[in-house]
Structures are given as C-alpha cells and as structure tokens.
Known about the structure:
The protein contains seven helices and eight strands, in the order βββαβαβαβααβαβα. It is of the alpha/beta class. It has a single domain, classed as 3-Layer(aba) Sandwich (Rossmann fold). Helix 1 runs parallel beside helix 7 and helix 2 packs across helix 3. The longest helix is centred in the middle third of the chain and has 21 residues. The two termini are 23 Å apart.
Amino acid sequence: MKERVYNVPLLHVVKQQAIAESLPTIIFLHGFESIKERNVQYAYMLAEKGFRVILPEAIYHGERALKDENLPSLFWKIVLQSIHEIQLIKGWFVDQQLTNVNRIGLAGTSMGAIATLGAMAKYDWVRVAVSLMGDPSYINFANYQLKLLEKQGVTLHYTQEQKDQLMQILQSIQASTYIDTWNARPLLFWHGKQDQVVPYQSSYDFYMKLRNIYEEQNVALSYILDEKSAHNVPNQGVVETVNWFSSHL
C-alpha cells in the first residue's frame, strides 16, 4: 500500500493478517534515477517471510521528482537526505507499534546501498544490513564520479569551495571513517565484478578491513562477488538478500 510518512512517499508491504502487529521491519532504499516500485520483488519476498518492508521514495525521484533538476549534481544531497529520512520513518513505525525496535534491518541498491552503509555507521538501531552495489568510501566514490562525469561532458556547477565543503561532510559520515570503532552487526555485501558505475573494489577493501572485527565478535559478515554481473542485481542476488535477513533478523 502507498503511504506518506513525514511527507515522504513510501510503499508499505506486509502480510494482510499481520498488518497491525509489531514486526521485524526492513527499510529498503532504491538506486539513483530509479523509483521505489522497482524493488517490489524484494519487498514481496521479504513480506512472505514475515517482515514488514518499507520502500521510501528518495528526494528528487519518482513522486518527488522536479522538472529540470540536474540530478548528478544532487547525488550526495540525496544520499544525505535519505540517511536523515530513514531515521524519521523508523521512528514513526516504532511509535505506531508496528515495528519491533530491536529487529530493524536496512538495505539498498546502488545509491540506496551507499546510503545504507552511511546509515549503518550512524545509527545503532540498524541491526542487520545488506549493501547491493554500494560504496562505503564516499570521498573516493565522489572523486570517481566527478572524473566519470567530466569524461561524459556533464557539468556539475561546483565551485572549488563547494567541492571542499562537500568532501568535509562526506568524510564525517562515510562508513570507512569509522572502521576502528565499527559496531559489528550482520552485514552482507553483494557486488558485480564487472560493475563500472560503482566499482566493487572499495566495498571489498572495506569488507576485508572489517573481517577481524567480525570474527572477534562472532558476527556474520559476507561478501558475494558475482563474476559476470555489472551494475545490476540478478535474481540470485535477490534470493541471497532475502536469505540474509531471514537468517539474521
């Protein structure tokens, strides 16, 4: 069903017979230039497993789209806004006694996965997470984006001062900044090895740095690198996501 929470449009997917119960809940964030409806497959399969699933619409996307917006220049504003809004959405569902506050998961694809990793670093209430084609190093990815867009002839209209300010903000919130103090919770990475939109290496390096922390605390951590996939998640990636939440949330 379609709802609005703090004026954020979202899809709310849950089994009809459990609609009024306090359930383990997953917030699922869509990717750049995508829409919330694109992830209904995940939501349906997770709801079948007994989860309440919330699919928010990112700012400047779908129902929130504005004409003539230069979306590439707004990428990081969208990420930061998404991290802020999921806190509001989570609070609303907890207040309505529809969500078990101790069993909240977070997942996303591409831009949504980038926001997921930042939110996991910021919010302890995220108990389980899945990053599908995400990047935990915001600064590295921002620099990669800038070079890629320049090659494509896209103008972002950033002054050097604005770039410097953006990098300071990203440094303060990127997951990779908090590697030494990371709060270990079950985390699954899925990435396509052929991905050129969000290359896998940064997330894999982050995963390798986390391994000792997770092993010491006996917390589940996994990285699935699909040898053939580019910037898309095949059905097996969807199944792995559902299985991860079923096992750990």
